[in-house]
Amino acid sequence: MGKINQKNKTKTVEEREEDYRRMGLDLVSGLSTELYNVKKTATIDLDVLASSVSNLSDGIDKLQHLANKDLSTDRKSINFVHRMKTFLNYAARNLKELREDEDRVLLHVREITEYFHGNVSKDEANPLRIFVIVRDFLGMLDHVCKELRSLKVPSIPNPLAPFR
């Protein structure tokens, strides 16, 4: 803060106000960059994600059936079946962790949504809606920042501005 004051002593009030305005705009417009992952999350279709996890689970079940029933009787495929079972155990553990992570993340999203919007029902159509709202807000914020940057600050004081 000391350096800002030292530099500002040689500037006029209007120049200092313009500097502060520019610094404020830079700070506010930086929110959009910092919240980039929120924008990406807003594009996620939760139903598609859930069906992908379900499809993975179905595929693992089919492979387990194949390895345990159909291929286990064939002597030639014993080595393959052993390796496939090792892989399937690994995949099943990862799928279980994925489902636990999904439940944990959705719980956190519900908590965030309840914090900002009040009580949320468990049957919420799109629990990720909060990210869409934030993304839209950031879009409006970016638009306003661009408009403010393109405006020139009038040299005549605004009569509607607060008294100094």
From TrEMBL:
- What are the recorded Gene Ontology BP terms? actin nucleation
**InterPro entries under this entry?**
FH2_Formin, FH2_Formin_sf, Formin-like_plant
Q: Which domain of life is it from?
A: Eukaryota
Coiled-coil ranges from the UniProt annotation? none
Where does the FH2 domain start and stop, copy by copy? 1-164
One Pfam family, short name please?
A: FH2
Any one GO molecular-function label of the UniProt entry: actin filament binding
UniProt record similarity statement: Belongs to the formin-like family. Class-I subfamily.
UniProt protein name: FH2 domain-containing protein
